[in-house]
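Hello again, I could really use a second opinion on something today. Take your time with it, there's no hurry, and the full record follows here:

___
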Amino acid sequence: MISMLYFVVESMGSFCSRQQPLNEVDSDENKQAAKIDSRIAEETKAEQHIHKLLLLGAGESGKSTIFKQIRLLFQTGFDEAELRSYTSVIHANVYQTIKILYDGAKELAENEPNSLKYVVRADNKEIGEKLSEIGSRMDSPCLTKEIAKEIVTLWNDTAIQETYSHGNILQVPDCAQYFMENLERFSEVNYIPTKEDVLHARVRTTGVVEIQFSPVGESRKSGEVYRLYDVGGQRNERRKWIHLFEGVTSVIFCAAISEYDQMLFEDDTKNRMMETKELFEWVLKQSCFEKSSFMLFLNKFDIFEKKVHRVPLNVCEWFKDYQPMGSGKQEVEHAYEFVKKKFEELYFQNSKPDCVDRAFKIYRTTALDQKLVKKTFKLVDETLRRRNLIEAGLL
């Protein structure tokens, strides 16, 4: 009996002695769990101080150029490897541009009443066919000095220049002139794209890309921190926006005001400005944006101010009641204010009564103008910070 009791006591003792390491393991696990919980809490708290900006707009509105400007202005920009990665993009852009112009000249020569002015010179047709074939490839070759000379020759053909003047009906990119003026540099063996080249490069946005920045500086103490999302603007990309709609501090909507006489890339029967109008209306009606501020960027003003003298604003159905009143800068300002008023009316018509007092600002922008983009985002930052103070009851 005594020996049995001794065995039990001894067994209990050995059991207790084995518990000690287990308790230490539990303690270590608890400490690790506490650290994880603390980190999650810190990250959650940090996330609460990051404002979500959603960059929306139709295709070709200049959204992605603004996105790249933000990287250059408020982040570290593009390193050499990233710049080099744009070489093939820019070469492809050049080939695609000259293809659009050559194919467009052939189309206009067949269909326009005064068709002779669109007929490319006989000695340039072979070059045109060759470049058109290259431009249709999925993988374009590097741009050589020899090919660059051929592109210059075709570009200087009077039929191609005449076609370029009708670029609004042919999907000629806005950066066509820039590409043609820089062909010699682009064709250098050791060519590395500049920041300006990258801004002009055209890569259609698919899916969602994001960056985090502060318009005032890297330190959170010096300004608000924003997370900016850029999404594809073409119709088939818009379904990918939906999951980003919740918790948005502000919607930045880009409208290319120079495109009132152009058709969509994906639907050549639809006016781009009408598409922008309908898209803006749709975004305004989304219930998830009822508390979000709206920043409207009336973009591509640099192209607009040149075009409005050549192409009447009332060619667009939405602007059919426009009446010109002068010339020069006066006419440009008059036309711009008319377009601005149209968007203002659209905003208030499509905002619920309890949403009309949310922050709404309109900015005149040119995405390629770095100084203007910097100034604009600092104004956006001021507007949103003021809004935060009002909501917190501090103003």
Observations:
- The chain is about 50% helix and 10% strand.
- The two ends are 84 Å apart (CA to CA).
- The mean pLDDT is 86.
- The chain has two domains: 55-78+204-388, 87-192.
